[in-house]
């Protein structure tokens, strides 16, 4: 791996948004193993040394957009390179994680700002909270990538679902790693190549679901990046980055990940 440091942060410091290394779906329904999106969704686990004989473990969700490329949220990983280990796991017919493919390299969206200043959050760039992971080997043959919507803004207006593999029982760390799906009603609230949509999901978003794919009949149009925080760490109101695969930033991110 290259010694590329990814700071654990989210380009959102507004008081209503939870900046977390991972956000997850509590509620919803178990995903169907035969579902195409389920076969493309992965569980991302990172191990980063944080001191003597200690390490930080993080989990997120991601989605295959090519045989060896996984799209996720940019804030998910604190470090890629050096002694850190990042792996992508797939799901069996019971929607439990099985097997692992090591991540060889990754790239952040070039407009991702990391931990933004509270005085200058740059809302027009919040949708740049994206990253591409390059797998050390192609995904198993029974896993099929999902195509990104050619008209993502229009796709976001249609009835959508999101998938995630984080905690499905709040505060129970042993409940992560089961793939679940929930409906989400979304509305695009900012424009441009790094647009953001705000939606309400049919389940609470908690810990482990950042990077989860959002799809409609128009295709894969978004990625979970943050939740609206009220009294608890879980909520059904969620922010999603709207994908623009034709933009300079997105194409640069993919090219950098491919180069490793």
UniProtKB/TrEMBL annotation:
Any GO BP annotation: proteolysis
The keyword Disulfide bond is assigned to this record: yes
Family stated for the protein in its record: Belongs to the peptidase S1 family.
PROSITE patterns with a match to the protein in the record: TRYPSIN_DOM, TRYPSIN_HIS, TRYPSIN_SER
Pfam annotation, one family: Trypsin
Lineage: Bacteria, Pseudomonadati, Pseudomonadota, Alphaproteobacteria, Hyphomicrobiales
Peptidase S1 domain span: 25-260
Domain of life of the organism encoding this protein: Bacteria
The keyword Mitochondrion is assigned to this record: no
One Gene Ontology term of the molecular function aspect: serine-type endopeptidase activity
Signal peptide: 1-24
Keyword field: Disulfide bond, Hydrolase, Protease, Serine protease, Signal
UniProt-recorded name of the protein: Peptidase S1 domain-containing protein
Organism in which the protein naturally occurs: Hansschlegelia plantiphila
């Amino acid at each position: 791996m290259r010694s590329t440091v990814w700071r654990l942060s989210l380009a959102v410091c507004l008081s209503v948004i939870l900046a977390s290394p991972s956000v997850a779906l509590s509620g919803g329904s178990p995903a169907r193993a035969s579902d195409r999106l389920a076969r493309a969704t992965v569980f991302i686990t990172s191990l980063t040394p944080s001191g003597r004989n200690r390490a930080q473990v993080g989990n997120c969700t991601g989605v295959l957009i090519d045989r060896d490329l996984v799209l996720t949220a940019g804030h998910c990983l604190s470090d890629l390179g050096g002694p850190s280990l990042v792996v992508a796991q797939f799901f069996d017919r019971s929607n439990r994680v099985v097997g692992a493919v090591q991540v060889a390299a990754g790239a952040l969206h070039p407009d991702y700002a990391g931990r933004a200043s509270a005085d200058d959050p740059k809302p027009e760039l919040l949708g740049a909270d994206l990253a591409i992971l390059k797998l050390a080997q192609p995904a198993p043959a029974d896993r099929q990538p999902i195509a990104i919507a050619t008209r993502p803004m229009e796709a976001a207006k249609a009835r959508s679902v999101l998938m995630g593999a984080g905690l499905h029982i709040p505060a129970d760390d042993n409940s992560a790693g089961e793939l679940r799906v929930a409906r989400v009603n979304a509305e695009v609230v900012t424009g441009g190549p790094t647009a953001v949509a705000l939606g309400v999901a049919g389940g609470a978003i908690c810990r482990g679901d950042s990077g989860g794919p959002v799809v409609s009949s128009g295709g894969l149009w978004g990625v979970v990046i943050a939740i609206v925080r009220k009294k608890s760490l879980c909520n059904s109101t969620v922010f999603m980055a709207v994908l623009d695969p034709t933009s300079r930033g997105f194409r640069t991110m993919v090219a950098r990940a491919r180069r490793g």
